[in-house]
Amino acid sequence: MPSLSAAVALAFLLAARTLAAEAEPLVDIAKSCPGIQIELRYATPRNITGKPIYPEKARALVLPNVAAKLNRAQRTLQAFGFGLKVWDAYRPKWAQQALWNAVRNPSYVVEPIGFGSLHSWGAAVDVTLVDLDGREARMPTDYDDFTAAARYEYAGGDTEIAANLNALKHAMAEAGFQHIRDEWWHYSVTEGIKEMAARK
Fold it and tell me: What is the pTM of this model?
């Protein structure tokens, strides 16, 4: 009988394959976006639930057009002495349900019903900045900080944090990503998603 971790890993893989069969195949950021760091927080206890949701060896998967935009943002950031680190990408609906169960606040977590989260379509990423040595840059908050301090519009007075956040905003907007109000780290792509949903 497979272990619990093996069963979760299999469920993660099957969910990704199901989405790929229904829409576009997802691609692995580690392979499609060389140089971009990956630290899937939901494969660790460092998230709002305080425990891993994903299997330890979960991959960061996205739609091909999202990967292309990440590469474009990475090139822009390198000119400023930064790079991207991905905290989350494709999120199966069962993982979205686990987050919803932990937070139950629609201002911060999308309930996994109907269309659900863009993460569950492989169309959203959660990212931060690293310097060229791979060290995380100072940003407004840590990941999964569901307070006003984590909003896209920085209200603090730290000039270094403001400059870092502006660099991230500029690179992601220039690459074609959209943002949301309450999470400075969350970016998404909506092109073609409604058509994908209609085919499902």
Answer: 0.86
Residue 26 DSSP label: P
Q: What is the pLDDT of residue 54?
A: 96
pLDDT in tens, 63-87: 999 999 999 999 999 999 999 999 9
Q: Which residue has tokens 């999470």?
A: 183
Terminal C-alpha separation, the chain: 33
Of the residues 174, 183, 191, 195, only one is catalytic, namely 183
Indicate if 111 belongs to the active site: no
**C-alpha to C-alpha distance for 57 and 151, rounded to whole angstroms:** 30
Domains in the chain with CATH codes:
4-199 (3.30.1380.10)
Which residues, 6 or more positions from 112, have their beta carbon under 8 angstroms from its beta carbon? 93, 96, 97, 100, 120
Helix (H) or strand (E) holding 166: helix 159-175
CB atoms within 10 A of CB 45: 11
Q: Which residues partner with 124 through β-bridges?
A: 188
